[in-house]
Structure formats: C-alpha cells, structure tokens
Design goal:
With about 140 residues, the protein is mostly helical. It is about 70% helix and about 0% strand. The chain is built from seven helices and no strands.
Length: about 140
C-alpha cells in the first residue's frame, strides 16, 4: 500500500505541497531508518566532542585562526589545558592534536620573518658542516 492511496496524505505530501512526487517521498520513507541510525551516530560523536578535555582550548585557538585569516589581531593567548590523564583523553576525539598546528600557523602569520630565517639557518648549518668536514680531511 502506498502512502499516496490516502487522499489527505497525497494532498499534503504531493506535488503541490513540497514539490516532490510520490517516488521521492517513498524513497525518503524507506531511508528513514538509515537516517535515524546516522543521527544516532552523529549524537554519539557530538557527545565525545563535548567530553573532550581540550574543547575550550581548541575553540579559542580556532577563533584566533579565524581572526588571523581575516587580517585582524589574533587576540589574547588561550588558556592552556593542564596535564590530562589518558582516561580523560580517551573520552574525547583528539582535539589536542590540532592545537600545535593552529598555534604554529598563528605564530607564522604574526611573525613572517621566522620562516626565511629558519630556512637560511638550516642551509647555513649544512654549508658550515660541509666546511668543517672538508677542512678536517686536509
């Protein structure tokens, strides 16, 4: 039996109300259990994100990154999350792994001279090591 055998349902869900035909509605109804299961999985993930001990720091660093991308001052430094036990880390989703790259990005945007100096220093050390190795062989 189709949901469109009922005249009221057909009028409410039909072409005029939502711009969908019977096949679209039937497909959506058949997908409902899958969508509910996906929603349940999303809620479980959301609960783990909220339980992550580094959530506050990650949000703060994220806002600082957005400010830097908008060519605004990054703002005050974020309060660091203290040492966290492995049990508390296991409850979260690993937001702490994104903090170091975010801080490095902000530091680089605030101090653009650091990258050329680091590259020059690295090249200089390689040449200096080669110089001393070559000098020691003579």
């Amino acid at each position: 039996m189709s949901y469109f055998d009922d005249p009221v349902a057909s009028e409410i869900l039909g072409q005029g109300a939502l711009g969908l035909d019977a096949g679209d509605i039937e497909a959506m109804i058949k997908l409902a259990p899958t969508l509910i299961g996906s929603g349940h999985a999303a809620l479980k993930i959301g609960r783990r994100v909220v339980a992550d001990p580094h959530l506050q720091e990650a949000l703060c660093e994220g806002l600082r990154v957005v400010n830097v991308l908008d060519n605004k001052p990054a703002g005050p430094k974020c309060r660091r999350t203290g040492p966290v036990s492995k049990a508390k880390l296991a409850k979260g989703v690993g937001l702490n792994q994104g903090l170091l790259p975010a801080r490095a990005f902000i530091f680089h945007r605030e101090n653009p001279w650091v990258l050329p100096v680091a590259i020059g220093g690295t090249v200089g050390l390689v040449f200096l090591a080669g110089y001393f190795i070559g000098k020691g062989r003579k």
